[in-house]
Amino acid sequence: MTRSRCFRRYNPPWFSSTATVLFILIASVGCSLSSTGAARPTPPPAPTGTVPQFGHVVLVVEENSTYSEVIGSSEMPYLNSLATQYGLATQYFANTHPSIGNYFMLTTGQIVTNDASFTGPVDVDNIVRELLASGKSWKSYAESRGDPLLYARRHDPLSYFSDVVNSSTQMQNLTLLPEFSSDLANGVLPNFSFVVPNLLNDGHSGPLQTADSWLRDNIAPLISNATFQKDGLLIIVFDEAATTDITHGGGHVAAVIISAKAKKDFQSTTLYQHQSTLRLILEGLGVSNFPGASSTAPEMGEFF
């Protein structure tokens, strides 16, 4: 018979049979036997935590850089300062290549298409539909919209949704980046803001140093804003890794979770993808219906 290595049974003359049973039970609490007699390690607990409620959620998507090119890089000191001060998802992976499928996963819970020339419309359930159904407001603030050299519609996914393009009212929420600063200053940011840097400032066609400077200039005022400090959540995530990285579909990317309600200097090792970000946005705004894969995606409550 195989014996546990946690204890060796020994019954001195004064040791009663009842005491023997108690001894075995107590020792067994700390030691589980495998078939070979080796103690099995206790599995780590699953991530836990509750997503708090927010009045304002802002999503900024950067472009085409692998996690190792961003985190710890001297080219992005501002983003790294946020990653060390707030929450960093160290095992976050994009869903596909190229970009457009990831933008749709972030907003519909589906890849929808991998065709960069796709013109829409998109009729599937989406973040705008669920926000409107819950009485929440939204805007997409796109830098350089209207300039074909700097603006890429595929980076502005809300502009494809039938809920938007078929409504003259909702079309007004597809606005320009300067309005983001104005709405912030005037205290009228919507519940959900999708902020779209242009191709030079999101890392797609410009260096990471330029993307980092853009974040510092446009995002630092948001983080220091009194309303954001009270009830805001900012998510900065890269859409996909370099095309050579196809791990989990779209490669290893950086995602930073920023809020006064977030844990400080927290690093998660849970595997997340874009559908979890979609779930976090909606859950944080009190929406209970989650489109597509976000309905079964791992929750991100551990960041709070």
Q: Tell me the Rg in angstroms.
A: 24 Å
Shape: globular
CATH level-two architecture of the largest domain = 3-Layer(aba) Sandwich
Count of spatially separate domains: 2
**Secondary-structure element string:** HEHHEHHEHHEHEHHEEEH
Short description:
The protein has 304 residues and is α/β, with parallel strands linked by helices.
Describe the protein in words:
The protein is 31% helix and 14% strand. Helix 4 (99-108) runs parallel beside helix 11 (274-284). The chain has an 8-stranded mixed β-sheet, sandwiched between helices. It has helices at 17-29, 67-70, 77-85, 99-108, 127-133, 162-165, 168-171, 178-185, 208-224, 226-231, 274-284, and strands at residues 56-62, 87-93, 138-142, 174-176, 192-196, 232-238, 252-258, 266-268. The chain has 11 helices and 8 strands. The protein folds into 2 domains: 1-42, no CATH class; 56-303, Alkaline Phosphatase, subunit A (3-Layer(aba) Sandwich). It is α/β, with parallel strands linked by helices. The chain is globular. Residues 1-45 have low confidence and may be disordered.
